[in-house]
Amino acid sequence: MTEYVSTTPGLYPLPxxxxxxxxxxxGHQKHDLVSGDEGDAITAAYDAAREEVIEVQQDAGLDRIVxxxxxxxxxxxxxxxxxxxxxxxxxxRYYDNNNFYREPVxxxxxxxxxxxxxxxxxxxxxxxxLQAVLPGPYSLADLATDDHYGDEAEFLDxxxxxxxxxxxxxxxxxxxxxxxxxxxxxxxxxxxxERASEAIDRVANATDADVVVQPYWGALxxxxxxxxxxxxxxxxxxxxVANQDDNVYNIQEYGATDDAALGLADGQNTLVExxxxxxxxxxxxxxxxxxxxxxxxxxTTNTETFYxxxxxxxxxxxxxxxxxxxxEVTAA
Length: 332
What we know:
The protein is α/β, with parallel strands linked by helices. It has helices at 16-26, 40-60, 78-81, 115-124, 137-143, 152-168, 182-185, 192-204, 222-228, 245-254, 275-289, 310-331; strands at residues 3-6, 65-66, 86-93, 100-106, 130-135, 145-146, 175-179, 210-214, 235-239, 259-265, 296-301.
């Protein structure tokens, strides 16, 4: 019987009080953004905000608890933006939406950093159901600029090795989500699609936890999806908010991993779904696949939720937790 696990891809909005406090503490200029060496007052504000978002998830009843990535000024680019071998330059658009990030330019060897591990160490003190979140290697390489390695394949390998070294330093965690929107937004071509899968495989092999690769903002191209299934991962994520038909087609045509993550709640829309509606969408997916039954289905928002007002994001968490409970009852 399928197990239903409620979770999210992380990257939460800051609590309103923390947004105000950190605005006063940090300022608004480029040199005021997170660099990895924040002072005590800023660190204390982030610590308190982390405790709050973890408590919110626990109160909502989520099965997996994320750290929240509240320090991440640069969304997916953060692990590079705070690295000593990286210079952050001008502001560039984050894909085709109205968010921006500092361009991370890699100027030296990408050795171990430990920045994300330190965040997770703090989170691990507050929960036993920890889920780690990182950008996937293909998306991180796609968002960055290489001024050191000089070769696209070598650069992707270096990014994968860097992320793998970070994962090896993580505290015990139940699940690792690798966020890979670039697999949809800037799909790898022939040859590059296989290298992307191999890079993901390298990061996934750095942990004993269950690994979920979460693309979003659409469906993967067929060859990209087929190659992704070759990686040693436990689950692929499907954005059923942005594209139902092509995601179902990929599963029907090429099969799937034993587990799957279903992006069924909209991480960017303030409209709060009904838990029964989410449960019905789960049933719809089962009906479309007919003979395919997953061992675990992660019920999640399709994207990160930092786009949402704080109150709406909290409501989305509660909906996902209730929907997973409803799905378990229906399955039983």
